[in-house]
């Protein structure tokens, strides 16, 4: 399967607003509904625009991370700045990342599609690398030809 690459990335920070996902981790419909509601809220109440104003680039990060045995989901941007009301500063480690590229009609569809491909196909089938936890993100890079395009970034280690 060649729908991914392995890329070396420097450590970086993502500042985000987040929510705890309460659905069981196998309840994909429940998780997707919680994420959809969360993204609707951060777009409507201005939190996403506030984050964008601090960003070092135009990327929007859709971050998933386990924190204290809780499934957390964040809307974030790459920045060195902070906000007192932000939920978390998320440290992504320096190292190798599985990168899956894609495009879709909406940000949410892109995030869900990339997550499904990365965790459902790429990681189970790759023989050389393993995901050992830590934050992972769907990165909304931009728009072209009427579609949203981006990448899934998952930190991995050699097996």
Descriptive notes:
- It is a single chain.
- The protein is an alpha+beta fold and 159 residues long.
- 26% of the residues lie in helices and 44% in strands.
- The chain is built from three helices and nine strands.
- It has helices spanning 28-44, 47-52, 107-125; strands spanning 5-9, 12-21, 60-67, 70-78, 88-92, 95-104, 129-130, 136-144, 147-158.
- Strands 1, 2, 3, 4, 5, 6, 7, 8 and 9 form a nine-stranded antiparallel beta sheet that branches.
- β3 (60-67) and β4 (70-78) form a beta hairpin.
- It starts with a strand and ends with a strand.
- 31% of the residues are buried.
- The model has no long low-confidence stretch (mean pLDDT 93).
How do the SSEs run, as a string of H and E? EEHHEEEEHEEE
Beta-strand content bin: 35-45%
Shape: globular
The pLDDT mean sits at: 93
Structural class: alpha+beta
Radius of gyration: 15 Å
- Spans of at least 5 consecutive residues whose pLDDT stays below 50 are none
Number of strand elements: 9
Q: What distance lies between the first and last C-alpha atoms, to the nearest angstrom?
A: 18 Å
What order do the helices and strands come in, and which of them pair?
Elements: E1 5-9, E2 12-21, H1 28-44, H2 47-52, E3 60-67, E4 70-78, E5 88-92, E6 95-104, H3 107-125, E7 129-130, E8 136-144, E9 147-158
Can I get a quick summary?
This protein is an alpha+beta fold and 159 residues long.
